[in-house]
Amino acid sequence: MTLYQSLQQYIMRGMTPLHMPGHKRNPAFRMENPYAIDITEVEGMDDLHHPTGVIRDLMERFRQYYETRGTYLLVNGSTSGNMIAIASSCQRGDVIVTDANCHRSVPHAVELLGLKSVRIVRPDIDEETRIPGPIRPEDVEDLFKHLASAGRTPAAMVITSPTYEGVISDVEAIADIVHHYGTILIVDEAHGAHLTLAAHTAGLTLTWPKPATMLGADFVVESLHKTLPALTQTAVLHRMTDRVSEETVMNRHDMFITSSPSYVLMASIDQCLTWQERQGIPAFREYDKGLRKIYEAAEKTRHRADGTHTPGIPMLPPEGRDPSKLILLGDGPTLAGQLLGQRIEPERVEEGHVILMTAPTDMPETLKRLASLMMT
What we know:
Blueprint: H1 3-12, E1 16-18, H2 54-66, E2 70-74, H3 77-89, E3 95-99, H4 105-113, E4 116-120, H5 137-149, E5 156-160, H6 171-180, E6 184-188, H7 195-200, E7 219-222, H8 224-227, E8 235-239, H9 246-256, H10 263-304, E9 325-329, H11 332-341, E10 344-346, E11 348-349, E12 353-357, H12 364-374
Parallel strand pairs: 1-10, 3-4, 3-5, 5-6, 6-7
Antiparallel strand pairs: 2-8, 7-8, 9-12, 11-12
């Protein structure tokens, strides 16, 4: 059986995707015959490496929507965005502070660029989940004081917020600290591309954290494909300040982006932004309501247990955590088996929990089904 045949067979199983990509195979998102638009840099179609036409126009739309100094299209995923941001901020031999919970692209960039990495370690949230907690600003302050006194002031710092589990760090406070030392702050917000849409939507019932683009970061990397309706590998890099020039970023972008960027993926990026501009706000408002019902159902079920956590019931989203991630506590493999038996495909299975990844593109019946499952 070929890979293509395997994919077709999998789709026929009718699994509910509680995982990325964020389009969730929702039939509302379509692209007629992608082979027909899989072109190269022909006349009138612009060039991602030297954008002057329709691609430059798309970048400008992103810049205005996200209120950035510049936004750069990525067809190699947030992996390339992290590398571009780091390469734009550091010289060979520089010290860089990296999140111990960072994506593997960060240590890869450190090795490729010949940087000296100092890791900052997160505390655990609790003994039950062992999920890494937020980076504490006081730990950042202590580390930077120590490095500065040793003559090793970092050129850049990279943190992940939100994390895979939706944990948010105090980006604003951290930005104030690192900027005091002349350091550039890079936020890997790969899992938070939907947070700008949340910030644009009034009347939400859940508490949604602000995106790093609004909190003082210099660079913010976002994977559109994780939580928004875009194809896998699509992402964007936001330059939020002038601490690094447009020329420098475009030069590093040229180094780390494929020389044959996919017009199909760039078209998907375009469609994703168009959806945010036109349908995003009402869709996010309905998504927020549906997600709220899931947490309310979970809370009712939890109260029926005698002070113990009912297996399979999601943690309530504490302040500072992205509520789009449903964290189901219990024996992970057992919970995953139960979910698969219900034709629900989870995003991630750990020993003590399972992550279900929701998105504003989830169909209403999916969220209703999850709410009903919380009551059983």
